[in-house]
From TrEMBL:
Belongs to the cytochrome P450 family. One of its GO terms (molecular function) is iron ion binding. Pfam families: p450. PROSITE patterns: CYTOCHROME_P450. Coiled coil: none annotated. This is Cytochrome P450. Keywords: Heme, Iron, Metal-binding, Monooxygenase, Oxidoreductase.
Amino acid sequence: MLFRSWAQTADAHWPDVARVPDHVGVEHLVVTRHALVRQVLTDPVTYRPDNALDAVTPVPVAALRVLAGHRFRLPPTLANNGGDSHPQIRAVVADALHPTRVAAQRPWLTALVRERLAAVGAALDAGAPVDLHAELAADLPLLVLARLVELPDAPVGAVKEFARAALELFWAPLDADRQAVLAAEVGRFHRVLREFAATGGGLAGSLRAAGHPPDVVVGALFFLLVAGQETTSQFLTLLLHRLAGEPAVRAGLRAGTVAAADVVEEGLRLEPPIVTWRRVATVDTTLGGTAVPAGSSIVLWLARAGRDPAAVAAPDEFRPGQRGSRRHLAFGAGAHRCVGDQLARMEAAVVVGETAPLLDEVTVVRAPWCPDNLTFRMPDAFVVRRG
Ligand code: HEM
Protein backbone atom coordinates (compact mmCIF):
# COMPACT_ATOMS: atom_id res chain seq x y z
CA MET A 1 0.00 0.00 0.00
CA LEU A 2 2.70 2.45 1.09
CA PHE A 3 4.28 3.00 -2.30
CA ARG A 4 1.07 3.34 -4.33
CA SER A 5 -0.98 5.07 -1.67
CA TRP A 6 -2.77 7.43 -4.08
CA ALA A 7 -4.55 4.40 -5.53
CA GLN A 8 -6.31 3.84 -2.18
CA THR A 9 -7.28 7.36 -1.16
CA ALA A 10 -10.99 6.68 -1.67
CA ASP A 11 -10.96 3.20 -0.06
CA ALA A 12 -13.29 3.31 2.97
CA HIS A 13 -11.54 0.67 5.05
CA TRP A 14 -8.77 2.44 6.90
CA PRO A 15 -8.40 2.95 10.65
CA ASP A 16 -7.51 6.47 11.84
CA VAL A 17 -3.95 5.30 12.49
CA ALA A 18 -2.70 2.12 10.78
CA ARG A 19 0.49 0.13 11.41
CA VAL A 20 1.98 -0.67 8.00
CA PRO A 21 5.33 -2.44 7.48
CA ASP A 22 7.37 -1.33 4.49
CA HIS A 23 9.42 -3.38 1.99
CA VAL A 24 12.42 -3.63 4.35
CA GLY A 25 10.32 -4.53 7.41
CA VAL A 26 10.25 -1.10 9.07
CA GLU A 27 6.85 -0.37 10.60
CA HIS A 28 5.24 3.01 9.96
CA LEU A 29 2.21 4.56 11.62
CA VAL A 30 0.06 5.78 8.75
CA VAL A 31 -2.25 8.62 9.80
CA THR A 32 -5.39 8.82 7.68
CA ARG A 33 -7.68 11.48 9.22
CA HIS A 34 -7.50 15.20 8.51
CA ALA A 35 -7.64 16.30 12.16
CA LEU A 36 -4.92 13.85 13.25
CA VAL A 37 -2.62 14.71 10.33
CA ARG A 38 -2.99 18.37 11.23
CA GLN A 39 -2.40 17.63 14.91
CA VAL A 40 0.94 15.95 14.13
CA LEU A 41 2.08 18.65 11.69
CA THR A 42 1.38 21.45 14.16
CA ASP A 43 3.00 19.81 17.21
CA PRO A 44 6.77 20.10 16.65
CA VAL A 45 7.54 19.09 20.24
CA THR A 46 5.96 15.63 20.08
CA TYR A 47 6.65 15.07 16.37
CA ARG A 48 9.86 16.32 14.79
CA PRO A 49 10.59 16.68 11.06
CA ASP A 50 14.07 15.12 11.31
CA ASN A 51 13.19 12.07 9.15
CA ALA A 52 11.55 14.07 6.34
CA LEU A 53 14.37 13.39 3.88
CA ASP A 54 15.56 9.98 5.16
CA ALA A 55 15.97 7.32 2.48
CA VAL A 56 13.07 4.89 2.77
CA THR A 57 15.26 2.15 1.26
CA PRO A 58 18.44 2.12 3.36
CA VAL A 59 21.35 3.22 1.18
CA PRO A 60 23.90 0.36 0.94
CA VAL A 61 27.62 0.85 1.47
CA ALA A 62 28.44 0.84 -2.25
CA ALA A 63 26.04 3.72 -2.97
CA LEU A 64 27.17 5.55 0.19
CA ARG A 65 30.73 5.36 -1.15
CA VAL A 66 29.57 6.90 -4.42
CA LEU A 67 27.92 9.74 -2.50
CA ALA A 68 30.95 10.18 -0.25
CA GLY A 69 33.15 10.32 -3.37
CA HIS A 70 31.19 13.41 -4.40
CA ARG A 71 31.42 14.77 -0.82
CA PHE A 72 27.62 14.60 -0.61
CA ARG A 73 26.14 15.86 2.66
CA LEU A 74 22.62 16.96 3.46
CA PRO A 75 22.55 18.64 6.86
CA PRO A 76 19.19 19.74 8.34
CA THR A 77 18.22 22.94 6.52
CA LEU A 78 14.52 23.34 5.73
CA ALA A 79 12.00 20.46 5.68
CA ASN A 80 14.13 18.19 7.92
CA ASN A 81 15.36 20.92 10.27
CA GLY A 82 13.67 20.98 13.68
CA GLY A 83 16.52 23.04 15.17
CA ASP A 84 17.14 26.67 16.00
CA SER A 85 18.54 27.59 12.57
CA HIS A 86 15.29 26.70 10.78
CA PRO A 87 13.39 30.01 11.25
CA GLN A 88 16.32 32.09 9.93
CA ILE A 89 16.93 29.89 6.88
CA ARG A 90 13.21 29.77 6.16
CA ALA A 91 12.94 33.58 6.42
CA VAL A 92 15.62 34.10 3.73
CA VAL A 93 13.87 31.62 1.40
CA ALA A 94 10.46 33.17 2.13
CA ASP A 95 11.82 36.62 1.16
CA ALA A 96 12.91 35.27 -2.23
CA LEU A 97 9.44 33.76 -2.73
CA HIS A 98 7.46 36.72 -1.38
CA PRO A 99 3.92 36.95 -2.87
CA THR A 100 4.69 40.29 -4.57
CA ARG A 101 7.73 38.76 -6.32
CA VAL A 102 5.59 35.77 -7.31
CA ALA A 103 2.78 37.98 -8.66
CA ALA A 104 5.32 39.91 -10.76
CA GLN A 105 6.12 36.68 -12.67
CA ARG A 106 2.52 36.13 -13.74
CA PRO A 107 2.50 38.14 -17.01
CA TRP A 108 5.77 36.58 -18.15
CA LEU A 109 4.52 33.07 -17.38
CA THR A 110 1.17 33.72 -19.08
CA ALA A 111 2.95 34.85 -22.26
CA LEU A 112 5.19 31.78 -22.20
CA VAL A 113 2.25 29.39 -21.68
CA ARG A 114 0.41 31.01 -24.62
CA GLU A 115 3.47 30.59 -26.80
CA ARG A 116 3.75 26.92 -25.81
CA LEU A 117 0.03 26.35 -26.39
CA ALA A 118 0.26 27.85 -29.87
CA ALA A 119 2.94 25.28 -30.73
CA VAL A 120 0.90 22.49 -29.09
CA GLY A 121 -2.19 23.57 -31.08
CA ALA A 122 -0.23 23.54 -34.35
CA ALA A 123 1.10 20.03 -33.67
CA LEU A 124 -2.39 18.78 -32.80
CA ASP A 125 -3.80 20.41 -35.96
CA ALA A 126 -1.20 18.51 -37.96
CA GLY A 127 -2.58 15.28 -36.48
CA ALA A 128 0.33 14.60 -34.12
CA PRO A 129 -0.17 13.32 -30.56
CA VAL A 130 1.23 15.75 -27.96
CA ASP A 131 2.64 15.01 -24.51
CA LEU A 132 1.34 17.87 -22.35
CA HIS A 133 3.65 16.85 -19.52
CA ALA A 134 6.72 17.34 -21.71
CA GLU A 135 5.43 20.42 -23.56
CA LEU A 136 3.89 22.34 -20.67
CA ALA A 137 4.36 20.91 -17.20
CA ALA A 138 7.92 19.62 -17.07
CA ASP A 139 10.06 22.74 -17.32
CA LEU A 140 7.80 25.77 -16.66
CA PRO A 141 8.16 25.69 -12.84
CA LEU A 142 11.95 25.49 -13.15
CA LEU A 143 12.03 28.44 -15.56
CA VAL A 144 9.96 30.54 -13.14
CA LEU A 145 12.06 29.47 -10.16
CA ALA A 146 15.21 30.48 -12.01
CA ARG A 147 13.79 33.99 -12.44
CA LEU A 148 12.98 34.27 -8.71
CA VAL A 149 16.06 32.62 -7.29
CA GLU A 150 19.41 32.66 -9.06
CA LEU A 151 20.27 29.05 -9.89
CA PRO A 152 23.41 27.28 -11.11
CA ASP A 153 23.88 27.65 -14.83
CA ALA A 154 22.92 24.05 -15.63
CA PRO A 155 20.76 22.89 -18.54
CA VAL A 156 17.09 22.35 -17.68
CA GLY A 157 17.35 18.66 -18.58
CA ALA A 158 20.22 18.10 -16.13
CA VAL A 159 18.31 19.73 -13.25
CA LYS A 160 15.19 17.67 -14.01
CA GLU A 161 17.20 14.44 -14.10
CA PHE A 162 18.92 15.26 -10.83
CA ALA A 163 15.63 16.17 -9.11
CA ARG A 164 13.86 13.01 -10.23
CA ALA A 165 16.90 10.91 -9.26
CA ALA A 166 16.78 12.45 -5.75
CA LEU A 167 13.05 11.70 -5.37
CA GLU A 168 13.67 8.10 -6.41
CA LEU A 169 16.80 7.61 -4.27
CA PHE A 170 15.16 8.88 -1.07
CA TRP A 171 11.50 7.83 -1.46
CA ALA A 172 11.28 4.74 -3.72
CA PRO A 173 11.66 1.00 -3.04
CA LEU A 174 14.94 0.18 -4.83
CA ASP A 175 17.59 -2.45 -5.43
CA ALA A 176 21.29 -1.87 -4.85
CA ASP A 177 22.19 -1.48 -8.55
CA ARG A 178 19.64 1.26 -9.05
CA GLN A 179 20.75 2.99 -5.84
CA ALA A 180 24.33 3.14 -7.15
CA VAL A 181 23.15 4.72 -10.43
CA LEU A 182 20.99 7.28 -8.60
CA ALA A 183 23.72 8.04 -6.07
CA ALA A 184 26.09 8.89 -8.95
CA GLU A 185 23.51 11.21 -10.52
CA VAL A 186 22.64 12.96 -7.25
CA GLY A 187 26.28 13.16 -6.17
CA ARG A 188 27.36 14.74 -9.48
CA PHE A 189 24.80 17.50 -9.17
CA HIS A 190 25.61 18.05 -5.50
CA ARG A 191 29.11 18.97 -6.66
CA VAL A 192 27.64 21.58 -9.04
CA LEU A 193 25.56 22.97 -6.20
CA ARG A 194 28.59 23.15 -3.89
CA GLU A 195 30.48 25.29 -6.37
CA PHE A 196 27.47 27.54 -6.92
CA ALA A 197 26.80 27.84 -3.17
CA ALA A 198 30.30 29.23 -2.67
CA THR A 199 30.09 31.94 -5.32
CA GLY A 200 26.51 32.30 -6.63
CA GLY A 201 24.30 35.35 -6.13
CA GLY A 202 20.57 35.52 -5.40
CA LEU A 203 19.41 33.19 -2.66
CA ALA A 204 22.85 31.58 -2.27
CA GLY A 205 24.37 35.04 -1.74
CA SER A 206 21.64 36.03 0.76
CA LEU A 207 22.15 32.85 2.80
CA ARG A 208 25.92 33.42 2.85
CA ALA A 209 25.43 37.06 3.83
CA ALA A 210 23.16 35.93 6.70
CA GLY A 211 26.12 33.90 8.01
CA HIS A 212 24.97 30.39 7.07
CA PRO A 213 27.80 27.91 6.46
CA PRO A 214 28.39 26.42 2.97
CA ASP A 215 26.70 23.10 3.87
CA VAL A 216 23.49 24.91 4.75
CA VAL A 217 23.53 26.93 1.52
CA VAL A 218 24.00 23.69 -0.47
CA GLY A 219 21.22 21.98 1.52
CA ALA A 220 18.78 24.84 0.88
CA LEU A 221 19.56 24.91 -2.86
CA PHE A 222 19.32 21.13 -3.04
CA PHE A 223 15.89 21.10 -1.43
CA LEU A 224 14.61 24.07 -3.41
CA LEU A 225 15.69 22.63 -6.75
CA VAL A 226 13.68 19.51 -5.98
CA ALA A 227 10.73 20.87 -3.97
CA GLY A 228 10.51 24.16 -5.83
CA GLN A 229 9.94 22.82 -9.30
CA GLU A 230 9.48 19.04 -9.55
CA THR A 231 6.44 19.07 -7.23
CA THR A 232 4.69 21.75 -9.28
CA SER A 233 5.54 20.02 -12.58
CA GLN A 234 3.95 16.86 -11.27
CA PHE A 235 0.93 18.74 -10.01
CA LEU A 236 0.36 20.49 -13.35
CA THR A 237 0.29 17.16 -15.17
CA LEU A 238 -2.01 15.50 -12.62
CA LEU A 239 -4.34 18.49 -12.64
CA LEU A 240 -4.53 18.76 -16.44
CA HIS A 241 -5.28 15.05 -16.65
CA ARG A 242 -8.00 15.36 -14.02
CA LEU A 243 -9.46 18.39 -15.77
CA ALA A 244 -9.58 16.45 -19.04
CA GLY A 245 -12.07 14.14 -17.32
CA GLU A 246 -14.16 16.94 -15.78
CA PRO A 247 -16.14 18.52 -18.68
CA ALA A 248 -18.58 20.28 -16.30
CA VAL A 249 -15.72 22.05 -14.55
CA ARG A 250 -14.28 23.15 -17.91
CA ALA A 251 -17.71 24.43 -18.93
CA GLY A 252 -17.79 26.44 -15.70
CA LEU A 253 -14.37 27.91 -16.48
CA ARG A 254 -15.58 28.82 -19.97
CA ALA A 255 -18.73 30.44 -18.64
CA GLY A 256 -16.86 32.30 -15.92
CA THR A 257 -18.85 30.59 -13.14
CA VAL A 258 -15.83 28.61 -11.94
CA ALA A 259 -12.57 30.34 -10.96
CA ALA A 260 -9.20 28.88 -11.99
CA ALA A 261 -7.96 29.44 -8.41
CA ASP A 262 -10.78 27.22 -7.06
CA VAL A 263 -9.94 24.52 -9.61
CA VAL A 264 -6.36 24.62 -8.34
CA GLU A 265 -7.46 24.17 -4.70
CA GLU A 266 -9.73 21.27 -5.57
CA GLY A 267 -6.85 19.80 -7.60
CA LEU A 268 -4.49 20.10 -4.62
CA ARG A 269 -7.09 18.37 -2.46
CA LEU A 270 -7.82 15.47 -4.84
CA GLU A 271 -4.59 15.15 -6.87
CA PRO A 272 -1.76 16.28 -4.60
CA PRO A 273 1.70 15.57 -6.05
CA ILE A 274 2.98 14.85 -2.51
CA VAL A 275 0.78 12.07 -1.17
CA THR A 276 2.48 11.49 2.18
CA TRP A 277 4.95 13.33 4.41
CA ARG A 278 6.88 12.06 7.42
CA ARG A 279 7.51 13.01 11.02
CA VAL A 280 9.17 11.10 13.87
CA ALA A 281 7.72 10.79 17.39
CA THR A 282 10.07 12.21 20.05
CA VAL A 283 8.33 10.67 23.10
CA ASP A 284 5.94 7.83 23.91
CA THR A 285 2.50 9.22 23.19
CA THR A 286 -0.92 8.31 21.79
CA LEU A 287 -2.55 9.49 18.60
CA GLY A 288 -6.26 8.96 17.96
CA GLY A 289 -6.24 6.28 20.66
CA THR A 290 -3.25 4.41 19.16
CA ALA A 291 -0.06 4.03 21.18
CA VAL A 292 2.90 5.75 19.51
CA PRO A 293 6.30 4.69 20.88
CA ALA A 294 9.11 7.27 20.80
CA GLY A 295 11.09 6.97 17.56
CA SER A 296 8.09 5.81 15.48
CA SER A 297 8.04 6.85 11.84
CA ILE A 298 4.76 8.69 11.27
CA VAL A 299 3.51 8.70 7.68
CA LEU A 300 0.98 11.48 7.24
CA TRP A 301 -1.33 10.53 4.41
CA LEU A 302 -1.93 14.01 3.02
CA ALA A 303 -3.87 12.74 -0.01
CA ARG A 304 -6.29 10.79 2.16
CA ALA A 305 -6.70 13.71 4.62
CA GLY A 306 -7.93 15.77 1.66
CA ARG A 307 -10.82 13.32 1.23
CA ASP A 308 -11.82 13.16 4.88
CA PRO A 309 -15.62 13.54 5.06
CA ALA A 310 -15.12 15.41 8.34
CA ALA A 311 -13.30 18.17 6.43
CA VAL A 312 -15.06 18.48 3.08
CA ALA A 313 -18.68 18.27 1.90
CA ALA A 314 -18.35 15.94 -1.15
CA PRO A 315 -14.93 14.32 -0.53
CA ASP A 316 -14.54 12.34 -3.75
CA GLU A 317 -16.07 14.82 -6.16
CA PHE A 318 -14.20 17.56 -8.03
CA ARG A 319 -16.34 20.55 -7.12
CA PRO A 320 -14.34 23.79 -7.16
CA GLY A 321 -15.34 26.12 -4.35
CA GLN A 322 -17.20 23.49 -2.33
CA ARG A 323 -17.21 23.73 1.45
CA GLY A 324 -13.88 22.47 2.79
CA SER A 325 -12.14 22.51 -0.60
CA ARG A 326 -9.33 24.77 0.64
CA ARG A 327 -8.81 22.86 3.89
CA HIS A 328 -6.54 20.29 2.25
CA LEU A 329 -3.10 19.64 3.73
CA ALA A 330 -1.30 19.35 0.39
CA PHE A 331 1.19 22.02 1.54
CA GLY A 332 1.56 20.63 5.08
CA ALA A 333 0.88 22.78 8.15
CA GLY A 334 2.68 24.48 11.03
CA ALA A 335 6.28 25.67 11.18
CA HIS A 336 7.34 23.79 8.03
CA ARG A 337 4.32 24.58 5.90
CA CYS A 338 5.35 24.96 2.26
CA VAL A 339 6.89 28.39 1.58
CA GLY A 340 6.33 27.97 -2.16
CA ASP A 341 2.55 27.59 -1.92
CA GLN A 342 1.72 30.94 -3.52
CA LEU A 343 4.16 30.29 -6.34
CA ALA A 344 2.72 26.83 -7.03
CA ARG A 345 -0.83 28.23 -6.92
CA MET A 346 0.01 31.06 -9.31
CA GLU A 347 1.67 28.72 -11.79
CA ALA A 348 -1.19 26.24 -11.68
CA ALA A 349 -3.86 28.95 -12.05
CA VAL A 350 -2.14 30.34 -15.15
CA VAL A 351 -1.76 26.90 -16.74
CA VAL A 352 -5.37 25.90 -15.93
CA GLY A 353 -6.81 29.18 -17.23
CA GLU A 354 -4.86 29.05 -20.47
CA THR A 355 -5.05 25.30 -21.16
CA ALA A 356 -8.67 24.46 -20.27
CA PRO A 357 -10.05 25.46 -23.72
CA LEU A 358 -7.59 23.13 -25.44
CA LEU A 359 -8.79 20.22 -23.28
CA ASP A 360 -12.26 20.64 -24.80
CA GLU A 361 -10.86 19.68 -28.19
CA VAL A 362 -8.68 16.66 -27.41
CA THR A 363 -8.95 13.02 -26.39
CA VAL A 364 -6.54 11.30 -24.05
CA VAL A 365 -4.17 8.91 -25.82
CA ARG A 366 -2.14 7.99 -22.75
CA ALA A 367 -2.89 8.83 -19.09
CA PRO A 368 0.02 9.60 -16.75
CA TRP A 369 1.72 6.57 -15.24
CA CYS A 370 3.26 6.90 -11.78
CA PRO A 371 6.10 4.72 -10.42
CA ASP A 372 6.19 3.24 -6.89
CA ASN A 373 7.10 6.01 -4.46
CA LEU A 374 6.28 6.70 -0.81
CA THR A 375 5.73 10.41 -1.29
CA PHE A 376 5.86 11.76 -4.86
CA ARG A 377 3.51 10.89 -7.72
CA MET A 378 6.10 11.56 -10.49
CA PRO A 379 3.75 11.18 -13.52
CA ASP A 380 5.75 10.36 -16.64
CA ALA A 381 3.65 11.70 -19.55
CA PHE A 382 0.16 12.83 -20.54
CA VAL A 383 -0.49 12.36 -24.24
CA VAL A 384 -3.49 13.79 -26.11
CA ARG A 385 -4.57 14.16 -29.73
CA ARG A 386 -7.12 16.30 -31.53
CA GLY A 387 -10.66 14.89 -31.62
C1 HEM B 1 2.09 21.87 -5.83
C2 HEM B 1 3.33 22.12 -5.45
C3 HEM B 1 3.85 21.89 -4.06
C4 HEM B 1 3.42 21.05 -3.08
C5 HEM B 1 2.22 20.11 -3.11
C6 HEM B 1 4.29 21.24 -1.94
C7 HEM B 1 4.16 20.57 -0.73
C8 HEM B 1 5.00 20.73 0.36
C9 HEM B 1 4.91 19.98 1.59
C10 HEM B 1 3.87 18.89 1.89
C11 HEM B 1 5.88 20.41 2.42
C12 HEM B 1 6.17 19.92 3.86
C13 HEM B 1 5.32 20.74 4.80
C14 HEM B 1 5.37 20.34 6.25
O1 HEM B 1 6.32 19.68 6.69
O2 HEM B 1 4.43 20.74 6.98
C15 HEM B 1 6.61 21.44 1.71
C16 HEM B 1 7.69 22.14 2.22
C17 HEM B 1 8.41 23.03 1.50
N1 HEM B 1 8.18 23.46 0.21
FE1 HEM B 1 6.64 22.91 -0.99
N2 HEM B 1 5.23 22.18 -2.25
C18 HEM B 1 5.01 22.61 -3.55
C19 HEM B 1 5.72 23.56 -4.23
C20 HEM B 1 6.78 24.27 -3.73
C21 HEM B 1 7.46 25.33 -4.42
C22 HEM B 1 7.07 25.89 -5.78
C23 HEM B 1 8.49 25.73 -3.60
C24 HEM B 1 9.53 26.79 -3.79
C25 HEM B 1 9.84 27.37 -4.92
C26 HEM B 1 8.43 24.91 -2.40
C27 HEM B 1 9.30 25.02 -1.34
C28 HEM B 1 9.15 24.36 -0.14
C29 HEM B 1 10.07 24.53 0.98
C30 HEM B 1 11.30 25.42 1.00
C31 HEM B 1 9.60 23.71 2.01
C32 HEM B 1 10.22 23.50 3.39
C33 HEM B 1 9.63 24.52 4.34
C34 HEM B 1 10.19 24.43 5.74
O3 HEM B 1 10.64 23.35 6.17
O4 HEM B 1 10.17 25.45 6.41
N3 HEM B 1 7.39 24.04 -2.52
N4 HEM B 1 6.05 21.62 0.45
